[in-house]
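quick one before i forget lol
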Amino acid sequence: MDQITNDKTTMTRREVLMGAGVVLAAAAAPQVFAAEEHHHGMMNKHGKLVETTLHCIRDGEACLDHCLKLFKTGDTSVADCAATVTEMLAMCTAMHKMASHDSKYAGQLASVCLKVCQECEKQCNKHAKKHEACAACARSCKECIRECEKIAA
């Protein structure tokens, strides 16, 4: 049997391949769960809202990451943007869960979610011409607002 050896450890080729398989499975898990959630979301009455909240979360994370990178360079011009994106991420995560499960409280939460997304869109639009991450986040928030308005209580 072939072995990979160093000073302290000996591994068989089988162990190396099994380890690689575990790493690949772990790397693929987020895409599998996202596809499953997308499929689940389209099967319930709030399917479009489930999808738009995912877009807000995705684009919001990218926007927040961009803001943090700017902070590291000393640029704090996007501080208010980062703060509202942080709130939006928390709200859209909750909205996503409630809409995914057809919660009886989805309409009430949508009323708050649309307000949080309106504020995030407003802040991100201030930087949209200069920062694409902010522009993408603002667009996602706008879509989420439209979907929230359809069910807001």
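fyi Residues 47-151 form a domain with the Substrate Binding Domain Of Dnak; Chain:A; Domain 2 fold (CATH 1.20.1270.360).
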